[in-house]
Amino acid sequence: MLDTTINTQTQDMLDSLNAALESGDIDRAAALFATDSYWRDLVAVSWNLKTVEGPDGVADMLRNQLEHTRPGKFEIQSGEIPAEEGGVITAWVTFETKSGRGWGLMRIRDGRIWTLLTALQELKGFEENRGTRRPMGAEHGARKNRTSWKEHREAEEADLGYGTQPYVLIVGGGQGGIALGARLRQLGVPAIVLDKHDRPGDQWRSRYKSLCLHDPIWYDHLPYIKFPDNWPVFTPKDKVGDWLEMYTKVMEINYWTRSEVTGASYDDASGKWTVEVNRDGETVTLEPTQLVLATGMSGKPNMPRFPGMEDFKGTIQHSSQHEGPDPWIGKKVVVIGSNNSAHDICAALWEGDADVTMVQRSSTHIVRSDSLMEIGLGALYSEEALANGVTTEKADMIFASLPYKIMHEFQIPLYDQMRERDAEFYAGLEKAGFDLDWGDDGSGLFMKYLRRGSGYYIDVGASQLIIDREVKLAKGQVDHFEEDAVVLADGTRLPADLVVFATGYGSMNGWAADLISQEVADKVGKVWGLGSDTTKDPGPWEGEQRNMWKPTQQEHLWFMGGNLHQSRHYSLYLALQLKARLEGLETPVYGLQEVHHLS
């Protein structure tokens, strides 16, 4: 039987919120929020990605934005019923603003709003042509000299960038650039995606041959086209590459291969960029209004330098250059690092009969893949979740509805379960001398990823090789190279024919310095991280990913990146911000990202 009390409480709260917003009574609206509450807004109210905290934070955002964006018409989403568990009412809601429509998730605790997520989904008057608005495709009737779909596409591709300038230029054609390109295409925003490789998907094809996605398939869909039901749970990298190539073509993304930016500058007077591009040997000058760096969190290799490297007689590679074990059968290989890539490369080299040593420089968080799937992801991204009505879209919103400030509180119990479930596994690693951690506060993998983007491994088999001493383990910092060895700071000498630096990647901010200027990079500041004041994520607290998918201090410069899940979900909000600017809508930004931590 429907619990009408819960439904009534939810409706009363929405009615009160609507009345306060409609009347412009900001204090009354803010008073509906609990003292320790969070309103996370994705573009709808703030024209930003912004989380405000407590009644004072709510009041400040509304004082700045209410007149401009006019949020209201909050309703319980059609077909959804509020639920109560542990004293918390959870309700799916829809709403409107002056410019658009959205949906979200509200939690009520002790008669006040505890968390509220508002996410813009479409712009009024500029809705995507999908569903009942899908294009006809065929033009029925007879007309002389009509052009076919193919001829129209060929003409568009020949003109864009030469006769007609793109409104948006996306630098980087991996999953982030492709997802954003697809969103912009559906919104009618003229855009070009640039990539240096020969084919879409080559970013994946060029990596070491054993690479597979460590995230399960339900977590990794791209916008509009989901992977088919027979797709493997963990996708091999070449299969990912083929999917991206197919997707780029089917979604009609204007994608320039073999194209590299050689320089870019912004003109304040015209509000446009001048971008010099080497397109397969031809110099092309583009003048987009908006420039998006989708060069990837894993795009700029971090390659350290040590004394003696120039005298080393073997081969030195960054993990991004390593293609696999085939040339190294019977050879001695030293892999510097102990996170995802290091483990994957070590396991593949061992399988290829190389003599492998991993050098662990600092502690690593490890979680077994099956435990992560069942405990960490199963409720949101799995066949079981789908059977329970949790679609990919719902899962994304549920995950997004947990403010970063308190997300670790929800993660810690999950990782405590994993630690207990796999106690014997962890004991084996520690006995082998491997240094483990669970994040600064025990919150595990997801928080490490969101805070610093590094420091973890999802175990798909390499850990057992370390436990069994099949992959040797050394610990410490590299001091110098000799002709045939790597020498650590404690004097340990590791003979090597190949040294692979699995040392990660630099900030996307570095791409801004390389492609535009150091001045612009400094103006923007650090990209990624929450300001959690944990290892490699110094404060102050921001509450959102720094400079990702939102306006930056450099006008008309944006950053697009993250894993496949983030590329799918956040590409919508970036695309809506760009579309609104193309159409001349009022887009006053609340809480523009401040500049922190340029180093």
Automatic annotation (TrEMBL):
The keyword Oxidoreductase applies. InterPro entries: Auxin_biosynth/cation_transpt (IPR050982), FAD/NAD-bd_sf (IPR036188), NTF2-like_dom_sf (IPR032710), SnoaL-like (IPR037401). Keywords: Oxidoreductase. Residues 131-151 are annotated as: Disordered. It comes from the Bacteria. Residues 18-114 form the SnoaL-like domain. This is FAD-dependent oxidoreductase. It comes from Thioclava sediminum.
